[in-house]
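Hi, here's the filled form for the chain we discussed.

Project: internal
Contact: R.S.
Residues: 383
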Amino acid sequence: MSYIIKSDQIYYDRKLRPAAIQVKGTAIENVLLSGIPADGEVIDLTGYRVLPGLIDTHMHGGNGFDTMDCKEESIEGMSDYLATVGVTTFFPTTVTSSLERTKKAVETVANCKDRGVGGAKIAGIFLEGPYINKQMKGAHPEEFIVDISLEHIKEVMEAARGNVRTVAIAPEKPGAVETIEYLKEHGVTVAIGHSNATYDETQAAIKAGARACIHIYNAMRPLHHREPGILGASLTTDGFATELICDGIHVHPRSMEIVTRCKHPEDVILITDCMCAGGMPDGKYYLGELPTVVENGVARTEEGALAGSTLKLIQGVKNTVDLIGVPFETAIRYATENPARQLDVFEKTGSLDTGKAADIIAIDDDYHVVFTMIDGKIVMDKR
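And the returned structure, exactly as it came back:
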């Protein structure tokens, strides 16, 4: 199928401008800054901002489903939900659990990725836990947190059939540096988080190949003038990516602003850390095996710790603009180009460049997603 998508506000070359996108089959064939080709069905999105599909690199669930359900229908349900909120590519994320359940979860995701899903595409798996620090466990069950073991990691990676793209590591744990080096050699991104690491321990991990900080500020020691820790290392290390949950709950807006002032625009990645209650009413839910309560859209464990979020990624973009004052064109990079580069899928998606997948969304002035196209297929049109 061929389409011509036109609008007065197409995000191309990091700017909003009048243009037309020529879609043929699953890919973008051309982007025209003047004139409209004669061939193809015209989709007139004038008045809407047309953007690359959003990429959520760290999300546990949504629409009542969780990665740790270990059910293909749950991954399918997450995929369908994400497409309705503008996400076209995602990385189903595990939470700390037993080895057997973790293996089952990643095997299930791999099965869905192999056969394809109906909504947002699966680009890989984020293994968050169990190689974390019990002191900074957050909503991860302490009984399943383990020492770092290559044998353990290899078992999980084998079950995932090469689809593990990111592994969370607490760099102060014994064997961390050697494991980071091993994972880097095998093309797996290491992210630091749920950790009490010092600045020096963090820098050693970065030197070994760690590339990102998980949900900055959360589940790490606070900044101290004599011990900057992960927070200080992340804020001052160029080329080291920083995940940010921009819901105004996990991180105060002025703390979010510090991140955007300290980091280069290419080093900030918006995530949701969304759990199964995303898109659902308040009530009782689970994050993996952990009971949670959602009140006013805020998910907490029964002990009161934050348990992921119910955030939509497009709302995170809006908050970045409204709460911090980041220009819209930069905020969109945080949720498209930057995660695509970080997880090495930018050659396929993350921008509206010729030859890339036709992963295209449109939003209105209130940031409501009204149109989603994935691989050249219209999966939602609410105009």
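Let me know if anything looks off before we file it.
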